[in-house]
Amino acid sequence: MFILFKIVHDIAFFTWDMSLTVVNLVTPSRREGHVTPEGHPGFGGKWPEFVPPGEGDSRCSCPALNAMANHGILPRDGKNIQFKEMGRLIRTTYNFSPSFCYFVPNYAAQMLGKNYNKDTIELKDLDLHNGIEHDASLCREDLALEPDQSKPHEGYIKELLASATGKDKDGNPLLTIKDLSKYSSKRRADARSYNKDFTLDFVHRMFGSSNSSTLLTIFGGRIKDLETILLEERLPEGWESRVRGQMGLTLSTFNPTTVWPVEFGISEKKYLAEKAAQSPADRDTTTISSSVNKLDTTSN
Ligand code: HEM
């Protein structure tokens, strides 16, 4: 009976998501400067006051949710958050589609064994290892080495942003799909070699690429904005989502245009081979060959 319900639910969900994609295709995009809806925090680029988290406040491994709490869009203490409310606020803050804003909080509720309609969470609950949180993140050290997953890893973030090869029309640096694949390859191979508890199955590889792909879509890959969002977990003054479709970013757009190209461009083997070729004199051949050996049969 449960399986039948799940099949019907999933078909209904993907039909809904696809129909929102069609609406986006046939309706004009929101005007620049008018992406955040009137009457909601951030309208006109005016975000509520930024206050960094204090003692006892709950924060998590997700920079986008932490930023919402730091601006008081989610409760500032990061606690007593209803799943539906979280989805509604993600919709107005980042312009993800209603389908995404239902799907992810609903997935989180199931992962935590909570009732999507009735229960509440605090942000820290989302750090359940290998729930959505996983090893080889771009903005956090692995949980086995850093139990506090709310802490941005400055070194990784700066290295990621410095790796940007794109340029916008004014010559400002932009992160690209290739940049994300390349840096993810490095993070996965490096973390695999030094974290003895390292795991990353197919589902978590896809989560990793989904999360990081928001840097290119919602945040438009703009390095200047990403510095503020990732390092301070703050929304820059005047910022609005770079996704302008009326119905927001659907999964049926997000996955084929960004998430899958990022994920399928990741190759730990290629990264290790390039690393070995770049500095033959100083390379630690033992580490590199042991890293290659550690690559499981399913990784690239
Ligand atoms: C209810 C909705 C959401 C949930 C439950 C959620 C949960 C998470 C979790 C658990 C992580 C840590 C994954 C890891 O270990 O790397 C994460 C990372 C991340 N999320 Fe979210 N998130 C949500 C919404 C969003 C939204 C709306 C955005 C973008 C606007 C976003 C952007 C990111 C980014 C950029 C990362 C960092 C990826 C990395 O470090 O590799 N998330 N999210």
UniProtKB/TrEMBL annotation:
UniProt similarity note: Belongs to the chloroperoxidase family.
UniProt-listed PROSITE patterns: HEME_HALOPEROXIDASE
Lineage: Eukaryota, Fungi, Dikarya, Basidiomycota, Agaricomycotina
Name assigned to this protein: Chloroperoxidase
Sequence ranges of Polar residues compositional bias: 286-300
Key words, A-Z: Heme, Iron, Metal-binding, Oxidoreductase, Peroxidase
Needed cofactors: heme b
GO terms for MF: metal ion binding; peroxidase activity
